[in-house]
Amino acid sequence: MSFLKFSSGRVRAVGYAFKGMVALIRREPSVKVQVFLTVLVIAAGFYFEITATQWMFQLLAAGLVLSAEGLNSAVEAIADFIHPDYHLKIGHIKDIAAGAVFFAAIFSTIIGLIIYVPYILALFD
After folding, report:
1. How is the cofactor bound (predicted)?
2. Domain ranges of the chain
3. What residues are annotated to the active site?
């Protein structure tokens, strides 16, 4: 396989991934909320001038939640395609996928609190 053919395939794959990311943001209300919250904490990071390590944890946490939301949306779409009507097992699968997002959101919130509570408290000193 030539390098040109290999690299053009990778560029196309990145294009598909970008298209999927845009579709997630446009069509999934929960992803819209998470993107909004991500923008807020990024703004807070600039405002409070958080450290590089804090930036890494914050961005990793935001990326984890957004990735989990995307995977949850994919699981729900597949489940709805396979079985459009309510089904107990499909409901269980969707609940598990939503639970994974909830785990990510809980731990991201804890990371946010660890980062920002000291900065917020310092405003009142």
Report:
1. Mn(2+), Zn(2+), Cd(2+) and Co(2+) support activity to lesser extents.
2. 29-123
3. 69
32 among the known binding-site residues?
A: no
Evaluate whether the domain defined by 29-123 bears CATH number 1.10.287.3610: yes
DSSP SS3 for 124: coil
> For residue 4, is pLDDT > 80?
no
47 is in an annotated binding site: no
Report the distance separating Cα 111 and Cα 103, nearest Å.
Answer: 12
Query: CA 81, CA 93: separation in Å to the nearest integer?
Result: 13
Per the annotation, does 116 bind a ligand? no
| HEC per residue, 38-52 | HHHHHHHHHHHCCCH
Nearest CA-CA partner of 98 in 66, 64, 73:
73
CB 70 within 8 A of CB 31: yes
pLDDT at 1: 58
Rounded distance between C-alpha atoms, residue 90 and residue 80, angstroms: 8
CA distances from 20 to 14, 26, 29, 33, 64 (A): 10, 10, 15, 17, 16
